[in-house]
Design goal:
Layout (H helix, E strand, L loop, with lengths): L3 E3 H12 L4 E2 H8 L3 H13 L3 E13 L1 H9 L2 H11 L4 E3 H7 L4 H13 L3 E6 L2 E6 L8 H11 L3 E2 L5 H12 L3 E13 L1 H5 L6 E3 L1 E2 L4 H6 L6 E2 L18 H15 L3 E2 L5 E3 H4 L31 H13 L14 H4 L2 E3 L4 H13 L6 E10 L11 E12 L3 H15 L4 E5 L5 E11 L4 E11 L1 H4 L8 E9 H9 L12 H7 L2
Parallel strand pairs: 1-9, 10-11, 12-15
Antiparallel strand pairs: 2-8, 3-7, 3-8, 4-6, 5-6, 13-14, 15-16, 16-20, 17-18, 18-19, 19-20
The structure holds phenylalanine.
């Protein structure tokens, strides 16, 4: 079948045929005064017809830095010093005077003197009471270094691989004098295949095809004679740098969808919480170390929080003092309401799930109840590669009759599986409010480690009885780290990376 090409492609083929060696794509585009993308699209047409293509090559280029450019314009320090003498027709000059006559700073002045000597142009003469520079030549032709520098007059970038051996020596000297910049770029070299080299232009049929219809074509009616080039929908489009949703928000939405698909409802609670819901209702004794200032941010304003109904406060108080109705002996100390009224930034969203249990009691609800929350918590903690002082927990509870630890493991494993992580382990753990308790870890391939994700367990009777939840109805609970999961999801090794917002990462992870 006869090969059909657009006129522009035939023109480019002609140029490539005339030049026997390879062509650098960016140079050809400049030479033909066409867009680089237009050229590469034409090359793509040649490739599809097995006539040509391109090879990518990494090239190193060198150019002058600021100081180098200054010398290109004004001359190297040695040349500048020499000019001072030559302009005044001198063959010698006192060093001190020479230094005064130049704009060079002290360091460059001595570099200049040292090179004058190296070039064999002059010597330093030191006699008692005098210190001079003495020229010992009559002609001072351009040195190899100066000739090399001149190359940057024509093009500000030179391919390193094209340098002849002599220039390499000069390159090394200039490089040592820190006058150069080195850059790396990918170059595309265009070539013709054997078929492309052999084919005669008159064997090719001109395709009356355009990629764009212009206003001129419309007004002259010429558009009727052309076909439109079809789009190749398999080719990647240009990167869209539009506003997008932050990767962490996308992740939160993904987690939401998973819990909702499992039949959960989302709940939210206040960030400013009472010690009552954050600690007391969780059967954490009032002298528990986690309540200390170094773990918890207490607030001065508002300083005192409102507690729930008096009888519920009393139920919690009695549980701490003697076990209340829960069957436990309690902690056996005198519970203080004032400590429970303290205001703090919640240290975990388990406070929010307890609020849900309070509502359950108030509304006389019946199980099952399945709720989750994804929300911010605060801890007075030292920030490092795996800890933040402000982070997000994925919290949830299932209130159900005769639910078991197996159900809990099932929900947690199912959640991580839906997130794409199958390697999940549960280990015995301890929390003051659950029995049994489990720690959850997920395997992180990139680090070859198990990453601790959070805790879980079955709420103790001391936690559930004050809210009317009694055996055989039980509450399965968990609190998992969102940022730890994000590390796995986005392949980060440092948790802080997630909130630094490097633009490159945002572009790549957002959608
Ligand atoms: N609140 C615990 C934490 O912040 C996690 C947890 C939630 C543990 C629910 C057990 C039950 O680490």
């Amino acid at each position: 079948m006869k090969i059909k090409l657009r006129k522009q492609v035939i023109d480019i083929l002609k140029v490539l045929k005339e030049k026997k060696s390879e062509y650098i794509a960016s140079e050809l585009a400049k030479e033909l005064d066409i867009d680089y993308i237009v050229l590469m699209s034409a090359i793509n047409d040649l490739k599809e017809n097995d006539l040509g293509g391109f090879k990518e090559k990494e090239v190193f280029q060198i150019s002058l830095n600021k100081e180098g450019e200054l010398y290109l314009n004004k001359g190297l320090p040695e040349r500048q010093l020499l000019e001072i003498l030559l302009n005044d027709d001198l063959t010698e000059k006192n060093m001190e005077d020479l230094q005064k006559a130049t704009n060079l700073d002290k360091k460059l002045f001595y570099i200049g003197i040292s090179n004058i000597k190296k070039n064999g142009w002059g010597v330093e003469s030191k006699a008692p009471g005098e210190h001079k520079l003495l020229l010992i030549k009559e002609e001072f032709p351009q040195t190899a270094m100066e000739l090399f520098l001149k190359k940057f007059e024509k093009s500000d970038k030179i391919d390193y691989s094209d340098l002849p051996e002599d220039d390499l020596i000069q390159f090394n000297i200039l490089n040592k004098r820190k006058l150069l910049k080195k850059t790396r770029k990918t170059q595309r070299n265009l070539f013709l295949t054997e078929k492309g080299k052999k084919i005669k232009l008159n064997e090719i049929e001109m395709l009356k095809q355009v990629s764009k219809i212009t206003p001129e074509m419309l007004s002259s009616g010429a558009w009727k004679d052309y076909d439109l080039k079809p789009f190749d929908v398999t080719k990647p489009g240009p990167l869209l740098k539009a506003g997008k949703i932050h990767p962490m928000v996308n992740l939160i939405n993904e987690i939401r969808e998973i819990f909702i698909s499992l039949g959960f409802t989302e709940i939210r609670g206040p960030i400013i919480e009472s010690a009552f819901f954050n600690f007391d209702a969780l059967f954490q004794p009032q002298d528990h170390p986690a309540r200390e200032l170094h773990d918890t941010f207490y607030l001065n304003n508002p300083k005192i929080s409102k507690l729930p109904e008096k009888d519920r406060v009393k139920a919690v108080k009695e549980t701490h003092e003697n076990g209340g109705t829960s069957g436990s002996l309690g902690w056996g100390y005198k519970w203080e309401e004032s400590i429970a009224k303290k205001t703090l930034l919640r240290t975990h969203t388990t406070a929010t799930t307890i609020r849900r249990l309070a509502q359950y009691y108030k509304n006389n609800e019946i199980p099952p109840i399945k709720v989750f929350s994804i929300d911010r918590v605060f801890r007075n903690e030292k920030v490092d590669k795996s800890h933040l002082a402000e982070f997000t927990q994925i919290e949830g509870i299932v209130v159900g009759e005769r639910v078991t630890l197996c159900d809990l493991i099932g929900v947690i494993k199912e959640f991580y599986k839906k997130m794409g992580f199958e390697k999940v382990v549960t280990r015995p753990g301890f929390f003051p409010y659950t029995e049994p308790s489990m720690e959850i870890s997920v395997y992180y391939d990139k680090l070859g480690e198990w990453l601790e994700m959070g805790g879980s367990g079955i709420f103790r009777p001391e936690v559930t009885y004050p809210w009317g939840i009694e055996n055989p109805t039980r509450v399965l609970a968990w609190g998992l780290g969102l940022e730890r999961l994000a590390m796995l999801k986005f392949g980060r090794e440092d948790i802080r990376d997630l909130y630094i917002n490097p633009i490159k990462w945002l572009r790549q992870e957002s959608y």
